[in-house]
Amino acid sequence: MLCTFDMEYDELWTNLKRAGGWLPAVIGLWVFIYLMNAWSWYIIIRDGRKDCPVSFWRVYKLTITGFALNYATPVGLMGGEPYRIMELTPYVGASKATSSVILYVMMHIFSHFCFWLFSILLYLAFYPIDTFLAIVFALVGFFCSLAIYFFMKGYKNGMAVRTLRLLGHVPFIKKWARRFAEEKREVLQRVDAQIAELHKQRKVTFYASLGLEFMARIVGCLEVYFILNVLTTDVSFLACILIMAFTSLFANIFFFSPMQLGAREGGFALSASGLSIPSAFGVYTGLITRVRELVWIVIGVMLMKVGNGSNEKKKEI
Fold first, then answer.
1. How many Cα atoms occupy the beta-carbon half-sphere of 197 within 13 Å?
2. Does residue 271 contact residue 32 with C-beta atoms inside 8 Å?
3. Which is nearest to 66 in space by CA: 39, 31, 105?
4. pTM for the complete prediction?
5. 50 backbone dihedrals φ, ψ, rounded to 5°
6. Which are the contacts of 169, defined by CB distance < 8 A and separation ≥ 6?
7. Which of 126, 150, 177, 260 would give a disulfide with 251, using CB separation of 3.0 to 4.6 Å?
8. How many secondary structure helices (H) and strands (E) does the chain include?
């Protein structure tokens, strides 16, 4: 792709230098995006109580580190989520830490499907479509609606026991899943009870957390807007929302790839081209987002060693 996109290397280097002042803005934007992510998770942990055993800024730190580990490890959630559970357990207990992390992950993924469905409606409202796009949108819309339905079922009835039961039929891990489900049955049932309680009894908490996650996705589109405005003034924020929606959908299909290498750049190029923006601008956008991602990975990993407190204090809490 780097050898064939329609931008000369001199032009690419020139555009990288042009990004100068915008690069700190792109990196700084994620201070606020992570703030909304952390707030969404903190609402779940707090669960309507006035006091909370863990401070917001610790949750903010764990949010940044968790995402940094997810960026850098294959299969995404295999890196950051176990770390979040491990760090949160001394403050709220194992079952609460596990349920809050599972709930937040569900909310984070749930907001993906809401964002994709919203973007389809946005495109239909402002752009003409042909037969091919109509078929694609119908399939994606059906898939997102189905996923939203299953997520709502999971929120009502819990998901931990059901997930382990499903993994019990997967080759290579079914023995481990069945053994784990048997040994941790009471903990898993308690986790499911806490998940179901949030949706049934704490609807304000549920929708506030979902709203923050959804808004974080909309604010994240400013990153694409900032980058593309370095190259051209002929781009709207609406187009950036659609570019980000398609790119995230395309990249998440290749969730097993560390940092979604190649998939995201391809998504940016294809989505930009589909909105009559040069595909090379999409590749350039992907390049800048990689730089931002690497910076935040470094910050997140460094935060693993900052402000942890003593183990004795954690045990007392």
1. 13
2. no
3. 105
4. 0.82
5. -75, -40
6. none
7. 260
8. 14, 0
